[in-house]
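Ticket #4471: complex job returned nothing on first submit. Input attached below:
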Amino acid sequence: MKRHLLESADLDRADATLVLDTAAQIDAALAGREVKKLPTLRGRTVVNLFFEDSTRTRISFELAAKRLSADVINFSAKGSSVSKGESLKDTALTLEAMGSDAIVVRHHASGAPHRLATWVRGSVVNAGDGTHEHPTQALLDAYTIRQRLGRLEGVRVAIVGDVLHSRVARSNVRLLATLGAEVTLVAPPTLLPVGVGSWPAEVSYDLDAVLPKADVVMMLRVQAERMNASFFPSAREYSRRYGLDARRMGALGDEAIVMHPGPMNRGMEIAAEVADSVRSTIVEQVGNGVSVRMAVLYLLLGGNEPA
Amino acid sequence: MSYLIKGARPYGEDAADILVEDGRIAAVGESLSAAGAEVVDGAGLVALPGLVDLHTHLREPGREDAETVETGSRAAALGGYTAVHAMANTDPVADTAGVVEQVWRLGRDAGLVDVVPVGAVTVGLRGERLAELGAMADSAARVRVFSDDGHCVSDPALMRRALEYVKALDGVVAQHAEEPRLTAGAQMHEGDRSARLGLTGWPAAAEEAIIARDVLLAGHVGARLHVCHVSTSGSVEILRWAKGRGVQVTAEVTPHHLLLTDECAESYDPVFKVNPPLRTDADVEALRVGLAEGVIDAVATDHAPHAVEDKETEWASARPGMLGLEQALSVVVATMVETGLLDWRGVADRMSARPAAIGRLDGHGRRLAPGEPANLLLLDPGTRAAVDPAALASRSRNSPYAGRELPGRVVATFLRGEATVLDGKATR
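Support reply: We reran it on our side without changes. The output follows.
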């Protein structure tokens, strides 16, 4: 494992598999326990440095660190020195001076974790940077797919929605390719980046053509405000062409699953009856997020041997 | 003060002595002697006319923490320049005779290069109405180049009027070609790398669309147009087409666009953030060929000093721009001379004669010949050294060439017969 987890490309197939296997071992170790806590990172300090509001990701990392017995500091940009104009570098050096062993960073600017990693000695974990990557989301998605389908090699994954602005899509495309899955991106052309052709993924504009062949359908959050910049004409038209409703769900194979990184826009990219169906892994993804993040923190801070 | 330069090679050709007296080149020939002249050993050095930069940001007035006219002038002299055009995007903006005269006087006081102010095209660079171009042209600063650089004059009707109006001033509009609606929030070249890095793309078409529009307008009204920092292969094609049609268009390319590509953005180090952005290998190749052909007339630095706090940030928050004055000639040697695309006369043409002609600077860009103003430089083309930002004369440190080994070292620069650089060091 590299010292930092900044993007999916930091993980080769062996590393990625090690993270997933470690998460599975952690799950097994904690299953049925009353005290859901391991002593592994006792005395280590993990800082959650969040420049963007993201309660769910922050809580997930916080819980992961606490279950490994680490000391956790939550540093949110709002109401802190950052709102008084402190630079990212000064914030990083301050946290470093306080003895942080790992910084989990969420930032609105793509590449901010990469910059941070050049200024601190500890490990940096990217918890989502701008429109770049969100590697632990991709790891928990891979973990969830493997849990449900029993494998990743050859699994056909359709990633549907606002790929252009999605860090979840970028991380998933890279990681799933590393793990041998076959990814198809489905979106209106306006929501695919110029240059998507160089990604290890197929591209389609036609959701109905892709669904029957998909083992996994991963729906991305689409902000209705995008229509104001003419990415699509209206929320209604988007939903008609690219939303996953009950009718479209009927085109899926028997074993196929539906994923969403959350938060969902019910009625926009996903219909309520789909989100709440047995195919949906949305709640499992949240639980798996904690296990996978425990595995990442453990492997970056604790050592490279399985727990 | 007079100087006798012994054994330098004018334009890299046969060695000769050059006698500099009373601000002029008094003689060029073999075995010259002159009583009382300071002898400069030119053995192994290439003598070239003093360089002329069409595009420099000196930051004064307004951001003296990043650069001043004096520190920027020193950087220019060390780079072999004898004249630089100072861009108008200062604070206050150089959109009145008062501000351009202030900059011009600061340059004269520093005395290291001729600082030639560029006047803003529009009031406050806002792109709404013309600044008093005539007053700036008639001022002591004698402004001939007008530019809203940093901003595109995007309103086509306003651009047309600006092109027409400067005809009466023997002026030229230097356009920062960037369609603003296509580059909202843009961070880097739009392509494979921007897609992967999650940085908003700056499409080549946003530059090319404006250049295409402007060459049509310049042709229509019979005015002079200059295109700043051309960065794409498509732009080169449009310029070639326009020149073929007889449009009075000239263009410049920066050293960094001749050498660096968007691969530099992979580090997310904002020292590589610049506008227009670093492009692809294919663009770099087309720009080099365009410069060699003369479709691109000039190398211009777009020297853009920035304070540390404006660069040591996340990519999106950083200000665009990079240093260039002290390494421009070295980059041209590396990309154009060592590759065989330009000889030394070609370098003199693209970095001195043509930019001087575009800026209407009579005393610069002249030949190395008796009777001409003694604006010249001596270059040691063989030396290779890694660039150390801490050693630069600029007040800022945002050099994209840090740690990169580049060929060529400017040993001496003369401005109207006075040495501004000797032994590789500024004389003042």
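Chain A touches chain B at residues 87-89, 107-112, 114-115, 118, 129-133, 167, 170, 193-199 (CB under 8 Å). Closing as resolved unless it happens again.
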